Amino acid sequence: MTASRIVDLRSDTVTRPTPAMRRAIAEAEVGDDVLGDDPTVQRLERAIADRLGKEAALFFPSGIMANQTAVQVLAEPGGEVVIEAEGHILNYEAGAAARWAGVQMRPVAAPDNLMTAELVRAAARPPGRYSVKTTLVCLENTHNAGGGRVLALDAMRAIRATCAELGLPIHLDGARLWNASVASGVPERDYAALADTVMVTLSKGLGCPIGSMLAGTAETMDRAWHIRRRLGGGMRQAGILAAAGLHALEHHRDRLADDHANARLLASLAARIDGVRVVEPQTNIVMIDLPATGPDAAAAASGLADQGVLVSEFGPRRLRAVTHLDVDEDGVRAAAAALARVFE
Ligand SMILES: *Cc1c(COP(=O)(O)O)cnc(C)c1O
């Protein structure tokens, strides 16, 4: 069959700016943000800091640059960073923490990829002349490789208490913290209060073309500004991009509930296919495990692509599908029907 339109479920990064967002971009008041006079960037940084309950926030071109800036600000070079074994900072940032922050990562495999206080305590090394010094804990909420699972507020509270006792700062990779908040009903600031620095992306579920934010104390963000400068991440008339962020906060945050409903629908339709299993989605990521016989992930992804449905391979027999602003219920139903045809 020939596809009338593409259903792109590879990631929530594929969203394109809506006409209204493009108007906000076109009308943005701008200045040179490196010189400190882009009013739209300043408004966005204030809005994000307030929403996250932090003193200050800083606009970045990407989530990776914001994460890596946080690691450089909080971790001691030569030290060790405790992180869940499938965490983004460890697995998908091209070795940046080793290369730029000079730290080694300590992967901790957690049940369902959800870190616990007990696991942090067990991984933190007692001080000793021979051992590497534990210097930072990185958390991820929602957990991407974990299928968009929400790290519960209680678990984060317990981790915070343990880290306080051990003298360890926490960086929260909250690329999809918006999804965690909408799914759990817990405001972003309640999660953010349990970390020293928080990264949130604008370019995923919120539907902006470009941009992520790092938030923390004013003093930490001063140091982050300097590191962003060193990485070449200072941008000039960045109000063009920040305008999209302000628009998204107002119009695209609450609607993430629709993406979550579409993810649940996709999961329930996919699970009807013989031998297919799904990880019950809590947010907008659906992990689809294929039967041991029949098409593997590569073959299934290409069979889907032939029908105009794009997904990611997430293992030899696992597909990842992510719902977002540009996929509606019809698109999800079409994707599930295409998957069923691949297994006919
Ligand atoms: C996408 C993502 C990032 C990185 O964001 P980029 O903007 O692509 O650099 C960081 N952490 C998590 C959990 C992500 O999903």
Keywords, please?
about 350 residues; alpha/beta; seven-stranded mixed β-sheet; four-stranded antiparallel β-sheet; about 15% strand; globular; binds pyridoxal-5'-phosphate
SSE ordering: EHHEHEHHEHEHEHHEEHHHEEHEEEH
Structural class: alpha/beta
Low-confidence stretches: none
Rg from C-alpha positions?
Answer: 20 Å
Number of strands: 13
- Would you tell me the overall average pLDDT? 97
**Strand content of the residues, in percent?**
15-25%
Which strands sit side by side, in order, in the main sheet?
2-8-7-6-5-3-4
CA-to-CA gap between the ends? Answer: 14 Å
3D shape? globular
Largest sheet: 7 strands, mixed
Bound ions, cofactors and other small molecules, one mention each: pyridoxal-5'-phosphate
Helix residue percentage: 40-55%
Number of helices: 14
